[in-house]
Design a protein that fits this description.
This protein has 10 helices and no strands. The chain is mostly helical and 279 residues long. The longest helix is centred in the last third of the chain and has 62 residues, at 217-278.
Length: 279
Amino acid sequence: MPGLSKDLFVYAVLVLLVWVAREISLLKLFKAGDDVGYWLGVAGAVLMLILFIYPIRKHFKFTSKWGSVKGWLVFHMLLGIGGPMLVLVHSGFEYGSLNAGVALYSMIIVALSGVVGRFIYARVNRGLYGEIVSQQDLKTRAGLEQESARSLLSFAPEVERTLLEFAQHERDALPGWRTHLRRVFVMPVWQWLVYWRCVRLLREPSARLAEKMKWEADKVADRRRLAHKLTRRYLNAEVRVAQFSAYEWMLSAWHIAHIPFVYLLVVSTFVHIFAVHAY
């Protein structure tokens, strides 16, 4: 799945950056209190301060001409990576006082929360940007795929029945947070179990159809690959439609959880800066 591949690439890059920051800190080239360490901390704090332009641009009318929301979102995410990385290098992955520890761990929590938010946001919106995909649009696209799958899988009625049962089960599910969590964490596993069951169910009808049509081995293999592809397409479409409302709910819950930690980060950072300069 392209979306999952992109996610894995992004998270691999983040892990690599943290590893690089850790390796730099192990070299002991500077300390948090010397000139280099100090200005690294200042640079990281400034980048994270600039992050707040994105919510301002997004929510206030007088900022409507400050560039596109899409561009600011990308800028927001880049700063959300660069700022914490500079602060990690500045700190050397250590803290010498309580206020420094609170600021550091608040930053780590906010950064990790941002990674989670990006994952959820990408599933509620097209790509990484701002065009909300309505659930009805997903249903329409899924419906086209479902009709295509059913018409081309008519030679395997057991597979059709299995796919329809999978879809109907989710359509009859009661709304609520338990259903949302199940659709996000359990449904993908169930999807692949159903897929492999369909693969097994396709073997016998595929062989009968090949014998009836007197197909060559290459034609049989092509038709089997097409059937597998259509089965995956059907299941993916149903999962996307079912998960849409779940990710919308998770995005709302994420905002509620994310904002208090942002405030804690801002307060603890100012306390840390004041303590560094006062003492």
